[in-house]
Design goal:
heterodimer, A: alpha+beta, Porin, twelve-stranded antiparallel beta barrel, 15% helix, globular, disordered N terminus, B: Immunoglobulin-like, 9 helices, 18% helix, disordered C terminus
Chain lengths: 246, 565
């Protein structure tokens, strides 16, 4: 049995008490309270064409269920590479999320990576929320089953050209506290990814097609590892896709 | 002697027969056609809105409500004074009405005026479950009219209530399409200077608050008596007539600013209670409020009833016409208002929803500091900057972006204009004061009272016979129509016994409003913000009135019954 599947089996033990507590609530509260909510969506669902002819399909999706006080969230990130016909990235996170401030949530759980290459399981501790001046922030500390620690950071800012045409600027980076050569992670700054996407809210906020550009750059040992494996260290992508939310 | 007793008895029976009405209401799935879209919803007797129930003051009504839905339902008689078991709030007054069940309401009608009824279960009311109540008084009314119409407004949305709630919880600005854009930034820069505009945006950005945060749920079609603007509900009249319009706002979320261009309206009743007549050009109808106005039309012209939403994201329209098919011009929507620093003041003075959140306070303080430094700029940015030169409505924060202005420059009704026509209660000093802070977190779409949501809150306990003074302190940037069931809300306009009786008290951002309540109805009652999604998010309380004239009400038994359902 892989170590991550044990983690998944633990999930129902966490969820069950919450659900039964909900059933015990009295009728008045049930009749007049919004109660638990759910949502499912994909912040990114896109095709990327690089300046070197590389083609990628990228999905960043999430689904949640829960109350104001406690949410369970599944986050998925996948990168499918056209030329190798393979999933370069497959990342599943199962986290519990609780508010710690008016604008910030803490989250904790596990992340399971099952790409083409070696698998990894991580413990996750994160912070997500809205910073002053409307920056959406998401940052996490990961500790892998190999004992390696890393931190990622994502920021997004939306600029309203109109109330339907929206430019979103994104910045993403990852810093590893130790090397994990097997999966191409060098110690220190690994990469940065910057994106600019122009979207249009076609159906409410449920379906918003976009076009954009993404710049990706690898640094230090991580860049060397990538070069050694015959990969590139810096790419420009044209992207086309849609933001989806149900 | 015997004979006279018999006659008296017979007379008694006769009057009982006249004064006891039986009404049947079925709760049905219906189609709602707004002219813009057709939506499955819930209605009464096969239609939404439901029928106009016409009662007589002094009548003993029996209302059989049959639930034809496949879910629980309920009917709340909004504004009616009645025994609490008849109030129709599931889990508080009674368990609710099961699918297929017929529940019989029975209560005496002890008042007159314009009221309404609606489901108090889930989001059935926004989904269409509402209707009007008109109660004819026992005596003569202190005003004259030749004809009357109910004008019942709503904000029908193409999304179901559940979906709207879910979208708001996922993203509080989901429906807000009036947010400030890059274009607004540049046009404002041209007017007020680039630096001032940037500072203004930084100030609001630091608070993570939006000036355009006035209507949470946009994208609705305003309906009058179930008809959209294109379908144009029309009330006919003969020239020379006085027409009484019974305005009822049955919206889930939307306040309407109402005018009839070319006509002066005489407000004669507010929330079912006669007020000393006030002539106005326009008035704001809060969610769940009612106003009765009389218009006198002398010529053979059509007139548009134009109801713009407070945030100007939509409108309802109807027509008063001497002949079917006649219409008048439909005005353009005015520019959407924007909140100002004045509307944010309540939020900043008191910090955020969590009292222990000192970080939030610090942030607020910092923003306030920079706001003070550039207060002149803050005013310049009001857009509707002319507001400062108008007579201030004491029920809005000084400098508020929401202060209403009549479109023709004339008189806009204020709460401060309302005086009871014939006070129901003698004025007396309140026995105590209860402070209720209206609180929330817009970003999370959490709404609460004193920072506590309904599901976590203890009931508010009142004693029968006391007169309680409620102090509403609105610490949020939204306007909240607060509705107390079962007992009158005596709005404090500073006129002692002439203070008007209402059932909904609208509290504007960053204001403090007082109301007093004669606690004269034993039992358990609901008390909540009447914005559907605010109530469901937690801005709701149970009120328990302990004691009573005979002290026989076993409140706990009913609560248990409700709990088991």
């Amino acid at each position: 049995m892989k170590s991550w599947s044990r983690g998944v089996l633990l999930l129902p033990l966490i969820v069950a008490p919450v659900l039964s507590a909900h059933a015990d609530k009295d009728r008045a509260v049930d009749a007049h309270s919004a109660g638990a909510q759910w949502g499912i969506g994909a912040e990114k669902f896109e095709y990327r064409y690089s300046d070197t002819g590389e083609e990628l399909a990228v999905v960043e999706g999430d689904a949640f269920y829960g109350s104001d006080e406690l949410k369970f969230r599944w986050l998925f990130e996948g990168e499918w590479e056209e030329t190798h016909d393979a999933w370069e990235t497959v990342e599943n996170q199962f986290v519990a999320q609780v508010p710690v401030d008016d604008f910030w949530d803490a989250k904790g759980g596990i992340r399971i990576d099952t790409p083409k290459g070696p698998d990894r399981v991580y413990g996750v501790l994160g912070l997500t929320g809205l910073a002053p001046y409307w920056f959406e922030i998401d940052t996490n500390l990961y500790l892998s089953d190999e004992g390696d620690a890393s931190v990622d950071f994502e920021a997004e800012y939306e600029l309203l050209i109109t109330n339907y045409w929206i430019v979103s600027a994104t910045f993403e980076t990852m810093v590893a506290l130790s090397e994990d050569r097997e999966i191409g992670v060098g110690k220190g700054l690994n990469y940065t990814e910057m994106g600019l996407r122009l979207s249009y809210d076609l159906i409410d906020r449920a379906f918003s097609p976009y076009v954009g550009v993404v710049h990706e750059r690898k640094f230090g040992d991580t860049a060397d590892f990538a070069e050694g494996d015959g990969g590139s260290t810096e790419d420009w992508f044209a992207v086309i896709g849609a933001r989806i939310a149900f | 002697m015997k004979r006279s007793i018999l006659t008296a008895l017979l007379a008694g029976f006769a009057s009982l027969a006249v004064n006891a009405g039986e009404y049947n209401i079925s709760v049905d799935r219906v189609q709602i056609d707004t002219g813009d879209f057709v939506k499955e919803g819930i209605g009464y007797n096969g239609a939404s809105p439901g029928p106009i129930l016409r009662f007589r003051e002094g009548e003993e009504v029996t209302i059989n409500v049959t639930n034809n839905l496949d879910e629980m339902t309920s009917i709340h008689w909004h504004g009616l004074i009645l025994p609490f078991e008849q109030d129709g709030v599931p889990g508080i007054s009674f368990p609710g009405i099961r699918p297929g069940e017929t529940f019989t309401y029975q209560f005496p009608i002890v008042q007159a005026g314009t009221y309404w009824f609606h489901s108090h279960s889930g989001f059935q009311e926004p989904n269409g479950a509402y209707g009007a109540i008109v109660i004819e008084p026992e005596g003569r009314e202190p005003f004259r009219y030749d004809r009357e119409y109910v004008v019942q407004l709503t904000d029908k949305h193409p999304h179901s209530g559940d979906r709207i709630m879910r979208n708001l919880k996922t993203s509080a600005d989901y429906y807000n399409r009036q947010q400030q854009t890059v274009g607004d930034f540049f046009s404002e820069s041209a007017r007020n200077g680039f630096v001032a505009t940037l500072r203004d945006r930084m100030m609001w950005g630091e608070m993570r608050m939006m000036k355009a945060d006035i209507e949470d749920v946009q994208g609705f079609t305003g309906l009058i008596n179930g008809k959209g603007p294109e379908q144009n509900w029309t009330g006919l009249f003969e020239p020379g007539e006085r027409i009484r319009l019974r305005f009822i706002n049955s919206s889930a979320m939307t306040y309407f600013d109402i005018r009839i261009p070319g006509l002066t309206m005489t407000v004669v009743q507010a929330d079912g209670n006669n007020v000393q007549p006030v002539n106005v050009d326009e008035f704001r109808l809060g969610v769940a409020e009612t106003y009765d106005v009389i218009v006198h039309i002398r010529d053979e012209e059509a007139y548009t009833i134009f109801a713009e939403s407070m945030g100007r994201s939509g409108f309802a329209r109807g027509t008063l016409a001497p002949k079917e098919g006649m219409t008048a011009d439909v005005p353009e929507l005015r520019e959407p208002p924007l909140l100002t620093m004045a509307d944010m003041a309540g939020h900043m003075d008191h910090g955020d929803m969590n009292d222990d959140d000192m970080a939030g306070m610090d942030h607020g303080g910092a923003a306030m500091g920079s706001g003070m430094d550039h207060s002149a700029m803050g005013h310049g940015n009001m857009d509707q900057g002319s507001g400062s030169s108008l007579p201030q409505d004491p029920f809005y924060a000084q400098g508020s972006g929401l202060t209403p202005v009549a479109s023709n420059g004339g008189r806009f009704l204020s709460y401060a204009d309302l005086r009871a026509q014939n006070p129901l209660y003698e004025y007396r000093e309140p026995t105590r004061e209860i402070e209720l802070r209206l609180t929330g977190n817009m970003e999370r779409y959490e709404w609460s009272i004193n920072g506590i949501k309904y599901e976590d809150a203890d009931p508010i306990v009142l004693q029968y016979g006391e007169r309680v003074r409620f102090k509403f302190v609105n610490e949020t940037m939204m306007t909240h129509p607060m509705h107390l069931h079962g007992m009158w809300s005596i709005l404090d306009v500073g006129e002692g016994k002439w203070n008007p009786l209402k059932h909904v008290i609208s509290v504007a951002p960053a204001t403090t409003v007082y109301m007093e309540t004669e606690v004269d109805a034993p039992g358990e009652w609901a008390f909540h913000c009447h914005l559907s999604y605010h109530a469901a998010a937690g801005m709701f309380r149970k009120i328990v009135v302990e004691g009573g004239p005979d002290d026989q009400v076993d409140v706990s038994a009913v609560a248990r019954e409700g709990g088991d359902a």
